Amino acid sequence: QVQLVESGGGLVQPGGSLRLSCAASGIIFSSFDMGWYRQAPGKQREVVAGITSGGYTDYADFVKGRFTISRDNAKNTVYLQMNSLKPEDTAVYYCKTVVAGYRQYWGQGTQVTVSS
Question: When you count CB atoms within 10 A of the terminal residue's CB, does the N or C end of the chain come out lower?
Answer without folding.
Answer: N
